[in-house]
Amino acid sequence: MSSLSKLTRNENMKIYRRSRTWIMIGFLLLAIALLSGIMKWDESRVDHSNWEQLLEGQNAGLQQQLTESGEIDEEYKAYLTEQIKLNEYYLEHGINPHQLSLWSYVSSSSNLIMLVTILTVVIAADMIAAEFSWGTIKLLLVGPASRSKIMLSKYIATLGFALLLLILCFAASFAAGGLLAGFEGVNQPLLTVQNGVVHEGSMIIDTLKTYGFSVVSLIMYVTMAFMISSAFRSSSMAIAFSLLFMLLGNTLSALLSGYSWSKYLLFSNIDLTQYLEGGTPLRPEMTMGFSILMLAAYYVAFQIIAWLLFTKRDVAA
Amino acid sequence: MSEAVLQLRNLTKTIGMRKIVDNLTFDVPAGEIFGFLGPNGAGKTTTIRMIVGLISMSKGEALIKGVSVRSHFELAMTHVGAIVENPEMYKFLTGYQNLVHYARRHNGITKERINEVVTLLGLQNRIHEKVKRYSLGMRQRLGVAQAILHRPSLLILDEPTNGLDPAGIRELRDYLRKLTKEEGISVIVSSHLLAEMELMCDRVAIIQGGKLVDIRSLQEARSQAQTKIVIEVDDPAAAEQLLAAAMDGSRLTVSGNQIELIGDKSAIPHITKLLVASEIEVFGIHAVQKSLEDQFLEITGGEMIV
């Protein structure tokens, strides 16, 4: 009888022995290099020699705004005072906030998690359907491994690939940031103002938080692609449909947000950052708890459908 | 012949109202090459796929070494090696990697065993090349290598000769013989190539419309088969008269210069003497054994196969 770990090794072999996988990985690294390069180039066009005067000038302007117009609402007032506090902190500690640090590169790399998601969705959609396309499904299923076990090993390998891409994305942007802005920036704190006092937080935890939210949507899209993969027996169809749903989903949710039932759509709930400070939920009655519940329900449904499709159908072709 | 390696008990597959496979029950003992014969759509492939779990059973049971495929699939499959239709491989992997992929699913396949099988099938020179560069014959050999890697008790081959050239077919046949003799493996083969089946199998099951029509031993069939005697003469009418009287009652047919009659080989000298004595010119006499194909067509009512 087959062990799950050996089956997963088999699936890994089938992912990483294909040149396509390495082209994808190269593509991701290239995107990170390109993004970092553009950021550096954009920064180099600005003269940073007199940043202290600039900040002082900015603070004076903010102060003036604050005292002159007593009519402005409280929220904006609080925002202005926070800005002033931060700028004072920058001046005090000799930090130029407009100069890119290592963490600026890392946190902008979180935008590339969308690319990581797309690449993983392609792999996931191919995972089961490709065995049918290659005709190897019979070879795979006739053996001392139950279909559920084979499917689980494929799902684990897919998530493993996603994890690899995420680590690469983080590590490559960290390296790019270090090379372009200097590795000494690694200890730079995250500055926030709470109750009128500037707090120093950990940059790495903040970045991981950004990554974490993106991983939620990554897992949902990948699981959906996996389900589509077991429904279709041609890998190109599975890939096409998975990407189509993924790319059109958000637009669809935005278009339908006028209807109250749109809150039950997967795509309306997939972005949890809408509940963070400064975000607006798609519909006013939606809460973070509601979305997490919806996502969990979708996740379970995807898994059950994929499992039924894969284990209960006859392989006749 | 010892305990049955494969037992089918009322195996049935129903799709909608149609019974694709209807109540099949038979045993395949150890060390036997067992053939599946039947016209297209008779249910051969469906039966084989039910045995290996690719298609679910509607009713009945298949037992491999006494283990139920339905309730203990993983355990039952440890005894099975299979090539279902053309052996499909991962083309982007090398032959060796394909074998490793297969070996990982079974317990206790060592590197030495892989190398042994590679040598056995004469693949050692190109085993580290990607499978996409293999010829069909080489893929077939790699398929056999995979199927026997874990020393199965039952080898299942569905249309194994598809796309093989005559040399490849012969090689496969010899190899199967060797396996059954030396390792006591039972083999189930389905093929539409009757002549091949005749050379390969010990016994054949003939299936038609999902039902088992007959199981016969080819050894028996060969010895029992009636012989047809074909005589070519210059005056068939005279010869017919003469032979009809002499052979009393045996069936005679005349076509052109040829007379055919059913009889035993031992009758030939007698017939020759008679003809020569009556001054009928004889151009040739020969005995034709009824082939499996003739018998098969007789049983299935001449329905087209292939």
From TrEMBL, chain A:
Transmembrane parts of this sequence: 21-39, 112-134, 155-181, 211-232, 239-261, 288-310
UniProt keyword annotation of Ion transport present: no
Coiled coil: none
GO molecular function: ABC-type transporter activity
Assigned GO CC terms: plasma membrane
Keywords: Membrane, Transmembrane, Transmembrane helix
Protein name as annotated: ABC transporter permease
Automatic annotation (TrEMBL), chain B:
MF-aspect GO terms: ATP binding; ATP hydrolysis activity
Keywords: ATP-binding, Nucleotide-binding, Transport
InterPro entries: AAA+_ATPase (IPR003593), ABC_transporter-like_ATP-bd (IPR003439), ABC_transporter-like_CS (IPR017871), P-loop_NTPase (IPR027417)
Record domain ABC transporter: where: 6-234
Alphabetical list of SMART domains matching this protein: AAA (SM00382)
Record bears the keyword Cytoplasm: no
Name under which the protein is recorded: ABC transporter ATP-binding protein
UniProt-listed Gene3D superfamilies: P-loop containing nucleotide triphosphate hydrolases (3.40.50.300)
Family statement drawn from the similarity comment of this UniProt entry: Belongs to the ABC transporter superfamily.
